[in-house]
Structure formats: structure tokens, C-alpha cells
Specification:
The chain is built from four helices and five strands. It is globular.
Length: 127
């Protein structure tokens, strides 16, 4: 059989493409951004026409990337910067812009371990 296997990975999806629309409209999940270390670099990028740079209410610059914001435990970050104790995202298309190196079975194993430990930690603090 003549078969073509596309191994370039899954495409990055935007925050607006997230399938659970109520989480988007209620801003429980938010667009992924990366904070600039250097305001000077951000300003230079803006002057060069980069439209993916935004300035927040504190004056810091952020680069908009595809997907939704998560923390190191894969928990969704809301509009206030707080993590959700109940919503974990490990779907590569939605975190690929924020964490571009995630893919494959090794990623799934590592991510599921991190998520499991987070859930166990939360449950143990309730008891």
C-alpha cells in the first residue's frame, strides 16, 4: 500500500478554537502568553510591527502564542492568573504554543505523572 504518514505533529490551535466555549467566555481558560524579560526588546519588536505583543495593566510586555495558558502542573490559568484546581489541559494542540517541546508517549507519561501527583496532593490537603 502506498501510504503517506505525516509526522510533523499536530497543528497549534488558538484559545478561540478551544471546544468548551463556556470556559472561554467566562475566562476560566485564557490565551497563552510569554512574558518578555526585556521591555526594550518588546518595544523594539512593536516598532518593527509585531502585532503579537501586548502590554498588561502592570506595564509588562507579553508575546501572544497559540493555545491556552497553563501552569507547571498543566492546570488552566484564569483571567486573574489563578490556576484551576479542577481543570487540567494536556492536549498538545492547545499547549503547543506555550510548551512547544511536548509530544509523544514520553510526554504523555511525564504529564500524566505530574497531573496525578497534583490531584493526590490536592486530595490529601482536603482530608
Amino acid at each position: 500500500y502506498h501510504t503517506f504518514i505525516d509526522c510533523v505533529g499536530q497543528p497549534h490551535l488558538t484559545h478561540d478554537e478551544f471546544p468548551f466555549k463556556s470556559l472561554v467566555t467566562k475566562k476560566i481558560v485564557t490565551p497563552a502568553t510569554l512574558k518578555f524579560r526585556s521591555a526594550t526588546e518588546a518595544q523594539q519588536q512593536l516598532q518593527e510591527g509585531n502585532k503579537d505583543i501586548e502590554r498588561d495593566s502592570t506595564g509588562e510586555y507579553h508575546l501572544k502564542v497559540p493555545g491556552i495558558a497553563i501552569n507547571d502542573c498543566f492546570q488552566a490559568i484564569d483571567q486573574y492568573g489563578a490556576y484551576s484546581s479542577r481543570i487540567y489541559i494536556m492536549a498538545v494542540p492547545y499547549i503547543g504554543g506555550f510548551n512547544p517541546d511536548y509530544s509523544g508517549l514520553d510526554f504523555c507519561e511525564k504529564a500524566s505523572g505530574i497531573i496525578s501527583k497534583s490531584i493526590i496532593h490536592q486530595l490529601s490537603s482536603i482530608v
